[in-house]
């Protein structure tokens, strides 16, 4: 079991060039805590945002993804109340109280907390971490009922709706804070990730599992290969040591992508489409009833894939299949989708009901009620094509990262170009097949490539938010300049210096969640 580490130095948390500015920020958090609550915090729980390098919109179909943690994070400074009978009180304030209003609520002595998912409250993310951690503590300790009370001051630098997964960072930091405040000193990373995935679904998003994994697991300087089959697991991945290093630049589109309001036509609809694609394919290939799995609605394209292979190739545990064979299975599935799900215009409820032999009301109840969707047609063909081809790209990207080290400048250039080409293919597929890009993200990608990026694509859910670019070290400034003059100045002519700093970040892989024991007045 790997436990969430307890750190005592910021140098163990952030890349070298960020330590100075982070020290100022952390000390400001501690002094604001003192002026707000009249005492010092007992500890700070931290969880970072992430950028997904490759593997977009396939985590909820249970295919592997490759994100990395970023420096931007959520910090929760916490002081624990002594345990007393009766309700316990949670006070939540934010370092930015104008934007995030202070709140207080009681946890009744039953220990159960209600979350109103219809209200867009920042404190809901804390509550969802609290509910998840309470459940876990109840499973661990028979006599555990109710969390202790806490005073909390939050400071988040992951832009919300910016595609860097601020919500997962907040939920993970919250759940970790609750565990720690209730006396858990060695919080298992995997248990924390699993509870954060379930918790985030309580706030109305049918989340995959990539973000929570990328927030909790990473070791500094490494990306993370996350697998969901046969169970959630993650492996830290080092980038190859090259004469010119891999530099990822993140650029905000500043188009807010609010998953909660757009869920019924964007994110949650994609989850429904992928789930139904799995069921329809299973039916077409005589594999019904498909065994239920860890997909958010109980079935996944990976579940269909493994079942198909079990039947046609007699492979009972496909997670042990070699990467080469797995890729050729995926190529075969791309061909099958092309031939057997021909309807470019999508499938109506009536058509899916006929294929599956499930009455429409049942179909709606099983797959469109928990997370409601608004759609007349469901694009099963396109969604399945994207998922299988994106799963192939992740494997090809991993192959390139682990290929024998490039020793000459020419070989390095070829490797970087090949990696970039895969990012570009992902962008094309997200834009044209999965339909999760937007004109602004496309524009950022086009500008970056013109200015010399090897590869450019949206990252995260899309429909706005963030983009990620693999850029030659010597061309970072040229790419930034192209965006500044041709994107940001055009779309946001009055952009402040501060916003500009937020807009573009050169990101090194950062470290995952940790607890920091506060001793004294500063860090
Ligand atoms: P964002 O919206 O960027 O945090 C979402 C999902 C991920 C994954 C990506 C698309 C949540 C919390 N996160 O990420 O699990 O599906 O979209 O690859 O729902």
TrEMBL record:
It catalyses: alpha-D-galactose + ATP = alpha-D-galactose 1-phosphate + ADP + H(+). GO terms for cellular component: cytosol. It comes from the Eukaryota. InterPro entries: Galactokinase (IPR000705), Galactokinase_CS (IPR019741), GalKase_N (IPR019539), GHMP_kinase_C_dom (IPR013750), GHMP_kinase_C_sf (IPR036554), GHMP_kinase_N_dom (IPR006204), GHMP_knse_ATP-bd_CS (IPR006203), Mevalonate/galactokinase (IPR006206). Residues 132-217 form the GHMP kinase N-terminal domain. Its EC number is 2.7.1.6. GO terms for molecular function: ATP binding; galactokinase activity. The keyword ATP-binding applies. It holds the Pfam family GHMP_kinases_C. Pathway: Carbohydrate metabolism; galactose metabolism. Keywords: ATP-binding, Carbohydrate metabolism, Galactose metabolism, Kinase, Lipid biosynthesis, Lipid metabolism, Nucleotide-binding, Steroid biosynthesis, Steroid metabolism, Sterol biosynthesis, Sterol metabolism, Transferase. GO terms for biological process: galactose metabolic process; positive regulation of transcription by galactose; sterol biosynthetic process. Residues 32-79 form the Galactokinase N-terminal domain. NCBIfam families: gal_kin. PANTHER family: GALACTOKINASE-RELATED, MEVALONATE KINASE/GALACTOKINASE. Belongs to the GHMP kinase family. GalK subfamily. This is Galactokinase. It comes from Cryoendolithus antarcticus.
């Amino acid at each position: 079991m790997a436990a969430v580490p307890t750190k005592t130095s910021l140098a163990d948390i952030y890349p070298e060039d960020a330590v100075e500015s982070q020290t100022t920020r952390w000390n400001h958090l501690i002094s604001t805590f003192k002026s707000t609550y009249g005492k010092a915090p007992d500890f700070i729980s931290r969880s970072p945002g992430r950028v997904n390098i490759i593997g977009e919109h396939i985590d909820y179909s249970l295919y592997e993804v490759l994100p990395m943690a970023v420096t931007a994070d959520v910090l929760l400074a916490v002081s624990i109340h002594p345990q007393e009978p009766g309700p316990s009180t949670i006070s939540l304030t934010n370092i930015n109280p104008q934007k995030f209003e202070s709140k207080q609520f009681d946890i009744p002595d039953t220990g159960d907390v209600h979350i109103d998912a219809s209200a867009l409250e920042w404190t809901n993310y804390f509550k969802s971490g609290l509910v998840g951690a309470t459940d876990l503590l109840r499973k661990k300790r028979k006599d555990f009922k109710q969390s202790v009370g806490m005073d909390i001051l939050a400071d988040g630098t992951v832009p919300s709706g910016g595609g860097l997964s601020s919500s997962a960072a907040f939920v993970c930091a919250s759940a970790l804070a609750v565990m720690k405040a209730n006396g858990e000193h060695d919080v298992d990373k995997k248990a924390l990730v699993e509870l954060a995935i379930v918790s985030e679904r309580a706030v109305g998003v049918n989340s995959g599992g990539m973000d929570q994994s990328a927030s909790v697991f990473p070791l500094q300087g490494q990306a993370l290969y996350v697998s969901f089959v046969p169970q959630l697991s993650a492996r830290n991945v080092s980038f190859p040591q090259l004469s010119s290093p891999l530099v990822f630049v993140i650029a905000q589109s500043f188009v807010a992508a609010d998953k909660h309001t757009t869920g019924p036509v964007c994110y949650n609809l994609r989850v429904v489409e992928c789930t139904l694609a799995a069921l329809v394919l299973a039916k077409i290939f005589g594999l019904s009833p498909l065994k239920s799995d860890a997909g958010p609605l109980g079935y996944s394209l990976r579940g269909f894939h493994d079942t198909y292979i079990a039947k046609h190739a007699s492979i009972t545990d496909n997670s042990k299949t070699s990467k080469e064979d797995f890729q050729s299975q995926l190529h075969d599935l791309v061909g099958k989708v092309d031939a057997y799900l021909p309807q470019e215009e999508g499938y109506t409820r009536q058509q899916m009901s006929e294929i599956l032999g499930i009455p429409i009301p049942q179909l709606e109840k099983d797959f469109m009620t928990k997370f409601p969707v608004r759609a007349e047609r469901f694009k099963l063909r396109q969604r399945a094509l994207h998922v299988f081809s994106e799963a192939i790209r992740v494997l090809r990207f991993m192959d390139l990262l682990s290929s024998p080290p490039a020793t000459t400048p020419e070989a390095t250039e070829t490797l970087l170009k090949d990696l970039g080409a895969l990012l570009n293919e992902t962008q094309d597929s997200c834009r044209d097949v999965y339909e999760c890009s937007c004109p602004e993200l496309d524009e950022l990608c086009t500008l970056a490539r013109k200015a010399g990026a090897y590869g450019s694509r949206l990252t995260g859910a899309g429909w706005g938010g963030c983009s990620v670019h693999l850029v030659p070290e010597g061309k970072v400034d040229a790419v930034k300049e192209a965006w500044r003059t041709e994107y940001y100045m055009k779309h946001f002519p009055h952009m402040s210096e501060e916003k500009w700093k937020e807009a573009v970040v050169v990101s090194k892989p950062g470290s995952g969640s940790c607890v920091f024991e506060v001793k004294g007045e500063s860090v």
